[in-house]
Task: inverse folding
């Protein structure tokens, strides 16, 4: 069995038909558990107090904002190199989910920053690169809508995705590249001494798992939608010609 | 049951409420668009097979 089998829309639809429902259920379970645990049962931070509870929304959404763009980059490269329509449609389907995650990361970051930094917004390297990533998402979606020919739209948006990847990577590593910003370094680390305490880490990991599964479920659902709309356009074209 | 959020109660509540709205919006829109696309395809296939 090859991964490329799923480039066949019929095979993709048949496989994902059985996956979407259970994925949404599992995402709801993880999100419900992680966020309830984080909000109601996780302790306050000794310095940030109860504001630390925003971490269970902010970190997973920020991670998914970047990972969504990386997924779109891989799908766009597959389209550019192998011309599989499903991959182009999957990239298109992921953009609204990615922009929602980016918006959530910016919003929760602003709400968290206000009591901690005394400001809703700072032109900090990470915040600024995230804002640019948000604008790239909007531009990507606008470009898909503005080009009538779907193959041309896929070509142009794939190129935009490759260019925008610079900002996806910058938003991840801005803290390491420029150390003059207010934003702290990564909360999660493989180094036991640098990683946050287990009391915060465990609910955070459950919440992150929920966000990842929700992203996958939404992208599959939206890709199925895009494949159906493409089929409708093809049938209408055939009807007009005959 | 409700934890004591102290001085940051407004910020924490705002972050959770806003995120909930964003999540519900993207999930709701995705489900609605998926249902609409399925109905449109069914109607188009039926129309073409009837013609």
Result:
């Amino acid at each position: 069995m090859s991964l490329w089998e799923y480039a066949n829309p019929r095979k993709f639809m048949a496989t994902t038909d059985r996956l979407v429902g259970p994925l949404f259920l599992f995402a709801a379970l993880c999100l419900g558990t992680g966020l309830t645990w984080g909000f109601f049962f996780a302790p306050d931070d000794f310095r940030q107090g109860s504001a630390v509870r925003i971490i269970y929304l902010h970190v997973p959404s920020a991670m998914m904002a970047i990972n969504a763009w990386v997924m779109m980059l891989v799908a766009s490269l597959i389209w550019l190199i192998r011309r599989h329509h499903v991959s182009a449609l999957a990239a298109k389907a992921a953009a609204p989910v990615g922009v929602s995650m980016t918006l959530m990361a910016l919003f929760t970051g602003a709400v968290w920053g206000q009591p901690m930094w005394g400001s809703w917004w700072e032109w900090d390297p990470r915040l600024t690169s995230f804002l640019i990533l948000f604008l790239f998402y909007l531009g990507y979606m606008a470009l898909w809508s503005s080009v009538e020919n779907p193959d041309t739209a896929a070509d142009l948006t794939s190129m935009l995705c490759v260019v925008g990847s610079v900002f996806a990577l910058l938003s991840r590593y801005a803290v390491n590249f420029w150390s003059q910003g207010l934003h702290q370094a990564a909360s999660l680390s493989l180094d036991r001494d640098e990683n946050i305490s287990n009391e915060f880490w465990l609910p955070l990991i459950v919440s992150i798992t929920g966000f990842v599964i929700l992203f996958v479920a939404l992208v599959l659902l939206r890709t199925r939608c895009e494949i159906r709309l493409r089929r409708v356009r093809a049938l209408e074209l055939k009807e007009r010609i005959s | 049951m409700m934890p004591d959020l102290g001085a940051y109660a407004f910020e924490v509540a705002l972050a959770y409420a806003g995120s909930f709205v964003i999540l519900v919006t993207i999930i709701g829109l995705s489900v609605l668009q998926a249902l609409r696309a399925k109905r449109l395809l069914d109607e188009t296939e039926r129309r073409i097979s009837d013609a």
Summary: The two ends of chain B are 63 Å apart (CA to CA).
